[in-house]
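Subject: for your reference before the review

Hello V.,

The reviewers asked for a structural picture of the protein, and I figured it would be easier to keep everything in one thread rather than splitting it across files. Below is the amino acid sequence we used in the manuscript, unchanged from the supplementary table.
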Amino acid sequence: MPGAATADAPSLPPLGTVRAECRGLARAAFRLDSAALQEQLDAFVRRHGVITAWEELMMPALHAIGRTWESGDRYIEVEHLLAWQVSTALRNARFLLGPAPAPGGDGSVLLACVPGEQHTLPLEAAAAALPRVGRPVRMLGAAVPAEALITAVRRTGPAAVLLWAQTRSLADTPLATHLMRTKWGPKGARQKPTLHLAGPGWRGTAIEGAAHPQGLREAVALLAPAPRR
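And here is what came back from the structure prediction:
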């Protein structure tokens, strides 16, 4: 039965100016208390929604714990446990928040990581947040091969593609350029998706016509369906 692991628990890392709930979440993570983590995450999502939960609770705690092991300390297991519970809370959002609005009617968003990219949590946050504004999603997840992504665009005809790259070494400029030129649909009525390059790996990359959302809130605002008249 999952519970708290209190023996040899490390001290809390510096968190800076954060919400009290973030400190509570970090303490539960360092105790390896999965039940407390899930309870706190679910309660915060239910009370504040996905975007605020991601920006003010999940990301600050993940970043603080990530800095702890990157600086030479141990406790990678703490980050892995927290990341799993964050992922679970994001997937639970549709149950925690109730029915989402009806889809906007002008297509879905295809979510994918560039080839080789394993960091999916930001895309999982987008997958949880976008349906709340009436935008359906298709999540392809981590390390999507280029040909598979191009095929998925042609098969599903999305309104937009959100492509995540965590590091500059993985940001695939040729793939992004190709996606900007990819069209789908019958001859004479072919369309192409808008491309949104998200994540720090795309900084300094200029792809004509592509958007560069700075964070989840901006991505959701850019990708939300246009209001119906």
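For the response letter, the relevant points are probably these. The longest strand covers residues 109-113. The mean pLDDT is 87.

Happy to draft the paragraph if you're swamped.

O.
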